[in-house]
C-alpha cells in the first residue's frame, strides 16, 4: 500500500485517452486499487482515476459510503471500482454545480453535468456493473470517467465567473 503522487493539470498524461483493462483480478490490479484507495483517502477525494497517478488504464474509484469532509453536502455514494466504463446520459437534463479535482488543487468550478445517468463497466474481477443514478452520484461518475478520456473539469465549464479558489469561495471548508 502506498500513497502515490497525484499528477496536476498541465501534465500531458492527464490529457490522454486511457487503455482498457484487459486482465482482471491480477495481483497488479489489486495493488493498483490499493494505491488508488490509499491516495484518495489521504486526500479526502470523492474519487480518483488511474491516469491521475500516472497509470494508463481505464480504471476509476469513487465513493465512500460516508460523508466526505470536502463535500459535506453530498449524497452518500457507495465505494465503487469501475473499469472500462460506458456512460449513457438518460435524458437531456443538465445541472451546473461545484466540483473540485485532486489534479486541480485549491480550486472549485461550477460544471454542467447530466442529472440522470446509466453507467456500465466491470469491477476488479471482471464482473459487470450496471447502474442508473442521479444527482451527485451521476456527477462523480461523469467527473471520474472524464479522466479516462483526457478531460479535466475546467474543460467542461461554460461559465468562468463560477471558478475560483476554494478558500475564497468556501471559507468554511478551509483549504480542502
Ligand atoms: Ni478529478
Structure description:
The protein has helices at 27-42, 135-146, 166-169, and strands at 47-49, 59-62, 80-89, 94-99, 107-114, 116-122, 128-134, 163-165. The protein has 176 residues and is of the alpha+beta class. It has a single domain (12-171), classed as Peptide Deformylase (Alpha-Beta Complex), CATH 3.90.45. The strands form two sheets. A five-stranded antiparallel beta sheet has the order 1-2-3-6-7, with helices on both faces. Strands 4-5-8 form a three-stranded antiparallel beta sheet. The chain is globular and about 45 Å long. Residues 101-103, 143, 147 line the site of nickel (II) ion.
Key phrases:
27% strand, 3 helices, globular, 176 residues, Peptide Deformylase, alpha+beta, 5-stranded antiparallel sheet, binds nickel (II) ion, 3-stranded antiparallel sheet
Task: Briefly characterize the structure.
This protein is an alpha+beta fold and 176 residues long.
Domain module count: 1
CATH superfamily: Peptide deformylase
Fill in the CATH topology: Peptide Deformylase
**Rg result:** 15 Å
DSSP helical segment count: 3
- Tell me, briefly, the overall form: globular
